Description:
Helix content is 83%, strand content 0%.
Amino acid sequence: MGDYSKALEFYEKSLKIKEKALPPNHPDLATSYNNIGQVYNNMGDNSKALEFYEKSLKIREKALPSNHPYLATSYNNIGLVYNNMGDYSKALEFYEKSLKIREKALPPNHPYLATSYNNIGEVYRNMGDYSKALEFYEKSLKIKEKALPPNHPDLAISYGDIGQVYNNMGNYSKALSFLEKALTIQQKTLPPSHPHIKETIRRINNVKKV
């Protein structure tokens, strides 16, 4: 918590200086608001995070072209907060805005696209729409498998997410297969007592009980 309050103090001092020195719609102000929103998001303060992310977005929408990557970041950040708040239709709306820009602006195997697909998959999973969740998780995985080394921890996260969706859908053999892939990577890349390993083992045991 101490680190967050220090970061907040630093960003707020920086913002104060910028607010005096810059015109009200300057992109540097948007960056400051975004950074403060990020700290509040890390602290789990959703309403404060949303307030600052929206301030940042307001400036970026005025100051930047409509397909600028910074706008995609703003939409993604706001989607993240709505997802944390359980407002899934709003989360989806902002994630899709972000994805639209990224699909136009980035090469098809860019990691940011994988992040967008993954985020949208997560919302669909939270909404209980498992076939849609699977579709987006698989799109994300496809990019990660091309872009990352075979034992990268991000691949383990994707395999774990897909395993969970198959579990939710009642396809237990598929669930087991993906969860075991996740565990294999985690055991190679993480210390044995890491919470991710414990969680994956717990999930595997749950599937085996069914």
